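Entry 12.
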Amino acid sequence: MSEITTQCEAKLMPIGPDGILVRFAEGLSDAANRAALAYRGAVVAAEVAGVTEVASSLTSVLVRFRPDQITREALSSQLAVLLRGTDWREMELPSGRRLWKLPVVFGDDYGPELVKVATEVGLSPESAVADICRSRLRVLALGFAPGQPYLGFLAEKWDIPRRKDVTAQVPPGAIVVAVQQVIPFSNAAPTGWKQVGRTPFRCFSTDRPAPVALTAGDEIVFHAVEPAQFDILTAARDGLGGATFEAIQ
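Predicted 3D structure (tokens):
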């Protein structure tokens, strides 16, 4: 199978011996991400025999299959048929998504770069926090670490660059920003993104029945809490660190 471009400009590309990548764009945009999420939902709903995994990234969908049950050519044909005649950038996002509300302590030791970031976006630290908290963000994709989400999109003024150097390590739950996106870190790790806060919520925890809490397409709203609440929420018995969620209707 060679690369195939469909009528809706998505590209189908072979990945390894048992994968096909459906790519909607080479660069990230809201429309391309919506297309990937919607198409992933449609492929799952189609229940194609022989498909073993369907996973979306920022702008593409990976479909893995069993070659002894379906050929690459046959699957590619079915995926292309599903693409035709539909502008996936305009489709509704799949059902089953949830709206999460995550507590965050902003500034000081919890967000050592808040003041600097606020200056970059032309706001006071208080206004920057308010701006983040009023933004309803979407889980664009999971990656880099188990269960770790890339959230977007903040307003255009938040299109700030990553650091030129790398912070040696941010703690689990660090809330970092750059390029109109927000990441709550799953684990302690180095990063070139800028830390403005920290949440007691853990994106990934083996202590929960479902270790990975979030799904691509879920939505997230942050709310500010006081530092004194951090340890209390971290010890929450449900393992969610004070986070709550509800179904998106």
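Annotation: The longest helix spans residues 30-46. The mean pLDDT is 95.
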